[in-house]
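Request: Could I get any protein with tokenized structure?
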Amino acid sequence: MDSIKALKISALVVVLVALVYLIVKIFIYGDSSTKVNYQKFGNSVVRDAKTSTEGTDPRDVAVDGILINIGGNQYQYMKSDMTFKMKNRSDKKAIEKNIRAVRDLILRYTSSIKGGDLETQSGKEEYKKALIDLIYNNFGYEVQAIYFRNFVLAQ
């Protein structure tokens, strides 16, 4: 009789230990095999530093990370991420191959202008027009439009 009672108590202790283990595993460590794995429902997209920021238009060229000292007393720095919409695909391929020289041209030109000129909407539009003309005059690439994705002036 005593052995049956000891067996029941042992079984109860084993069940309680298993229950405590499951509770600790699920609620404290957050590890549950009953969690839904959403990655099985489609392709998982992980964004990394090499992810392109180009638009969906096949003529778009991303020019990211323009950070430069600018003239004037009001602002000292400009940071910008731009998209150039090219007039044709051949100019897109050409500008992509020569993007370092284009970035250099943009940086040299931007460092020569005053930050206060870029503060207004009309100033930004004049800046875009000047870049379009500058790129065409120096390289012959026809940029249809320039879009700012980020634009920051700072002291």
